[in-house]
């Protein structure tokens, strides 16, 4: 579905955001881009829908170079969920969800039906929520609307840029589970950025770990946990193990 072929992206003066990235994301996969801040995760994500362009190499979707596609149409065909919700404050929730379908020329009835379907899917009863404004919602509810908006035009590809990072732990856990279910049920191809190791391990089919713009290791979560390719991978994977050990010690009354 998505393929990166020897992709480089620089910020000038020899500063590289990505160095020779080659990576394939099959249709239906949930791929998580993991790594510290500044490692190239969000740059990789934005190359898919041409919010950024590569300096060299190619990004392909279904075998077509994204540079051969109209950038606006490409972006409207791909769902994108931001960390900080990104809702339009002057629009109702229904209007927010319907933004892309309206731009694509859908009829009003079709948009209304799709909006209600998605609000219901994400636990926001349409009769209660469609006419509300973002300021009336909690952070978790706003992020649900952000996911609904990204899904509105029935994309096959979803890009998620730390979508749960601003939420409290309980809301974050619920939304992670809800999105994983939606991903499976709708047969989506998802690429998600996070720096949270536990989140990556729990959600991903595969994890692509980046450091300093380079792909360090890519594989299923169990592979990165049990067979780290480099010390940086082992160090990152040690974090959730230490947390589990501390929690077990606390559960057994250790100070």
Can you describe what's shown?
The chain has 255 residues and is an alpha/beta fold. The chain has helices at residues 41-48, 71-76, 93-97, 99-103, 108-121, 126-129, 139-151, 169-186, 197-203, 221-226, 231-251, and strands spanning 2-10, 16-25, 30-34, 56-61, 64-65, 78-81, 157-161, 189-194, 206-211, 214-219. The protein has eleven helices and ten strands. It has a six-stranded mixed sheet with strand order 6-7-8-3-9-10, with helices on both faces. A four-stranded antiparallel sheet has the order 2-1-4-5, covered by helices on one side. The protein is globular, with a radius of gyration of 19 Å. The termini are far apart. The relative contact order is 0.16.
Shape estimate: globular
State the order of secondary-structure elements, H for helix, E for strand: EEEHEEHEHHHHHEHEHEEHH
Unreliable residue runs: none
Strand content: 15-25%
Structural class: alpha/beta
Percent of residues in helical segments? Answer: 40-55%
Integer average pLDDT: 93
Rg, rounded, reads 19 Å
Can you count the helices?
A: 11
Largest sheet: 6 strands, mixed
Note the main attributes of this structure.
255 residues; alpha/beta; six-stranded mixed sheet; 23% strand; globular
Concise structural overview:
The chain has 255 residues and is of the alpha/beta class. 42% of the residues lie in helices and 23% in strands.
SSE topology sketch:
Layout: E1 2-10, E2 16-25, E3 30-34, H1 41-48, E4 56-61, E5 64-65, H2 71-76, E6 78-81, H3 93-97, H4 99-103, H5 108-121, H6 126-129, H7 139-151, E7 157-161, H8 169-186, E8 189-194, H9 197-203, E9 206-211, E10 214-219, H10 221-226, H11 231-251
Parallel strand pairs: 3-8, 3-9, 6-7, 7-8
Antiparallel strand pairs: 1-2, 1-4, 4-5, 9-10
């Amino acid at each position: 579905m998505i393929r990166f072929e020897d992709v480089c992206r620089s910020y000038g003066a020899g500063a590289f955001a990505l160095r020779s990235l080659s990576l394939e994301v099959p249709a239906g996969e949930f791929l998580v881009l993991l790594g510290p801040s500044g490692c190239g995760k969000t740059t990789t994500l934005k190359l898919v829908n041409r919010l950024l362009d590569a300096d060299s190499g190619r990004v392909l979707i279904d075998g077509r170079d994204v540079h051969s596609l109209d950038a606006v149409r490409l972006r409207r065909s791909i769902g994108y969920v931001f960390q900080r919700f990104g809702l339009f404050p002057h629009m109702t929730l229904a209007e927010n969800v319907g933004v892309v379908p309206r731009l694509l020329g859908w009829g009003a009835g079709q948009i209304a039906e799709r909006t209600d379907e998605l609000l219901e899917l994400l636990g926001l009863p349409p009769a209660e929520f469609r006419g509300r404004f973002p300021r009336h919602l909690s952070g978790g509810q706003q992020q649900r609307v952000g996911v609904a908006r990204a899904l509105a035009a029935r994309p096959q590809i979803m890009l998620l840029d730390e979508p749960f990072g601003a939420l409290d732990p309980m809301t974050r856990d619920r939304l992670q589970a809800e999105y994983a279910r939606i991903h499976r049920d709708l047969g989506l191809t998802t690429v998600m950025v996070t720096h949270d190791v536990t989140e990556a391990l729990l959600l991903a089919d595969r994890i692509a770990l980046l450091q300093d713009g380079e792909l360090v290791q890519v594989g299923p979560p169990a592979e990165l946990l049990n067979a780290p390719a480099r010390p940086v991978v082992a160090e990152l994977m040690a974090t959730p193990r230490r947390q589990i050990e501390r929690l077990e010690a606390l559960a057994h009354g250790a100070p």
